[in-house]
Amino acid sequence: MNANRKTLAERDAAVAWHPYTQHGIEAEPMAVESAAGSVLTLEDGTEIIDAISSWWAILHGHGEEAVAHAMAKQAQKLDHVLFAGATHEPAVRLAERLVEVAPEGLTRVFFSDDGSTAIEVALKMVIQSWQRAEEDQRRVFVGLEHAYHGDTFGAMAIGDPDPFFEPFSSFMFDAKLVQPNIESMTAMLDQLGDTAAGVILEPLVQGAGGMLMQTPQFLRDLRALCTERNLPLIADEVMTGFGRTGKLFACDVAGIAPDIMCLAKGLTGGMTPMSVTMAAERFFQCFLSEDRGTAFFHGHTFTAHPIGCAAALASLDLTLDRDVPKVLDGIGARIEAKLRELLPEFADASEVENPRVAGLRRMGGIVAFELIGGEEGYLASQAPRLRQEATARGVLLRPLGNVLYAMPPASTTDAQCDRIAEVLADLVAIASA
Q1: What are the two backbone dihedrals, phi and then psi, of residue 322, each rounded to the nearest 5 degrees?
Q2: Which of 75, 107, 244, 249 could serve as a FRET partner for 334 with CA atoms 20 to 30 Å apart?
Q3: Residues above pLDDT 90, as percent of the chain
Q4: What pLDDT, on a 0 to 100 scale, did the predictor assign at position 3?
Q5: Which CATH fold topology does 8-60+324-432 show?
């Protein structure tokens, strides 16, 4: 390489501002040249296993041919048209397919751009529906401690402010967060009375909060509680949707149907941004009027963009045809089994005098556990170093503070699963050294 030619990372450092990155201390970003299946290829030719599906989005694998082909074909026919006052076949067909496969009762599909905006749409639907019912006092949402639903203001308001959102606390509406058990939820709803607007949660797995997992029974009890009190239940399936928990949707694992469900990430196989907010018919009906002023005023330039819809249709076909939920479940099971083989604490914790790890858990293709004996929480200082150590060993991992986890795409081979587990075990040794 020419000595005067800057590397991609050097050029990046002069102009780019990365998400969730402290540029004052973090190492240079990986310079990724290409990707295929579960492997990222860097500028220097190094290959890295993508063990976190590039922030939980890549579902089938990078460069999935069927999805890429559908996007290219659609781009040549209809690249984009506004969705206000116009419609098109890919959007209508996708909405029809989603209604077919979603939990019962979700009959309306509102398109937007990403997970956070899908949450904003859900919150606005609920707030305005209460206003239509002349119950304006219902404006307090209840969620779970350690929740994360996105970075826009409504999504921040119903998330745990520490450590992400504290600087914005004075700008956000009131919300209550409780522990993930039905007793805490019942007590809070009792306290709020007729000021409660609804309940929102990431069903079964709280992602950014540390891959915290709930039981299906908790979801069933929560569904019954919301039904009893006539409160809408919003399921944030942005991360859990499309097979990550071993079923098509996390709500399917518990056998429940939410009143509103938000989808993104795996919706298009992770190949282009798109999200949807699916709602029960009554939410749509409450906005119907001859008064234009009562319409649902929300929209984005690329709402229901045809190329994204084509990608989502192709991805959904692959998900069903290949039984991706089962594939991901098998991947998660293999990583879990290998970890139990490699880490004595998970084989027989009673025989380990000074355990280094705890809390091994799995839901479908998601495997996680905690490092113990060091700093805890998202800002734990060892996380960036462990991320670098994993990359040096050929695996992309992004610890959530002291929580190590894996969530690879469906293309991940047995050998790659074993390597992911080996590197996770290496990180345990490094953290405890």
Answers
A1: -95, 0
A2: 249
A3: 91
A4: 53
A5: Aspartate Aminotransferase, domain 1 (3.90.1150)
**Per-residue pLDDT for 348 more than 90?**
no
Give the integer Cα–Cα distance in Å for 91 and 54.
Answer: 26
Work out the average pLDDT over 276-292. Answer: 95
DSSP 400: B
3-class secondary structure, 240: coil
Name residue, tokens 């229901």: 304
What CA–CA distance (Å, rounded) separates 51 from 53?
A: 6
Is 225:182 a contact under the CB 8 Å cutoff?
A: yes
Question: HEC states along 71-125?
Answer: HHHHHHHCCCCCCCCCCCHHHHHHHHHHHHHCCCCEEEEEEECCHHHHHHHHHHH
Contact 67, 268 (CB under 8 A): yes
Q: Could you list the active site residues?
A: 20, 148, 236, 265
**Residue ranges matching CATH 3.90.1150.10 in the chain:** 8-60+324-432
Look at residue 14 and tell me whether its pLDDT is greater than 80: yes
Q: Where are the beta strands (DSSP E) in 290-402?
A: 357-363, 366-371, 395-396
Q: Has domain 65-321 been given CATH number 3.90.550.10?
A: no
What whole-number distance in Å separates Cα of residue 100 and Cα of residue 292? 30
Kind and range of the H or E element at 198?
Answer: strand 196-201
Cα 369 from chain centre: 18
User: How does strand 366-371 pair with strand 357-363?
Assistant: antiparallel
> DSSP 3-state assignment of 384?
helix
Tokens of 43: 């500028």
* DSSP assigned state of 167: G
User: Residue type at 258?
Assistant: P
* 396 within 8 A of 390, measured Cβ to Cβ: yes
Alpha carbon separation from 55 to 137, 152, 318 (Å, rounded): 37, 18, 20
3 state SS of 10:
helix
Residue-wise pLDDT for 56-105, tens only, equals 999 999 999 999 999 999 999 999 999 999 999 999 999 999 999 999 99
Q: pTM for the whole thing?
A: 0.96
